[in-house]
Amino acid sequence: MPTVFLKNGYRLFFYGNDHRPVHIHIEKDGKTAKFYIDPIALVKSDKFNSSEIKEIRKLVIEEKNLINKKWYEFFNNK
To answer: Distances from the Cα of 1 to the Cαs of 9, 12, 55, in angstroms?
Structure first.
């Protein structure tokens, strides 16, 4: 599970066997979520409240280019 980055206690990562479309998984304190990257959209969330989802969405928007770059680096090299 390659970690893309850590910020504000959130870990944003991929699973090694992930599939398209490009997306990112997020975890913190036993809570999880998944966002598509283009367009940015919440796919699912388990236990995050609405303010946390808003904060995560902001992180994903801010780091969209990095997430895409890391996705293609990781999955194109497999």
So the answer is: 17, 10, 22
Query: pLDDT band at 1, cuts 50/70/90?
Result: confident
Burial 16-42 (b: 16+ CB within 10 A, else e): eebeeebbbbbbbeebebebebeeeee
pLDDT of residue 19: 92
Task: Please state, in angstroms and rounded to a whole number, the distance separating the CA atoms of residues 33 and 67.
Answer: 15
Give 4's pLDDT tier (boundaries 50, 70, 90).
very high
Q: Which residues contact 40 (CB under 8 A, 6 or more apart)?
A: 57, 60, 61, 64
Q: Which helix (H) or strand (E) segment is 2 a member of?
A: none
pTM given for the model: 0.94
Instruction: Count the neighbouring beta carbons within 10 Å of the beta carbon of residue 5.
Output: 14
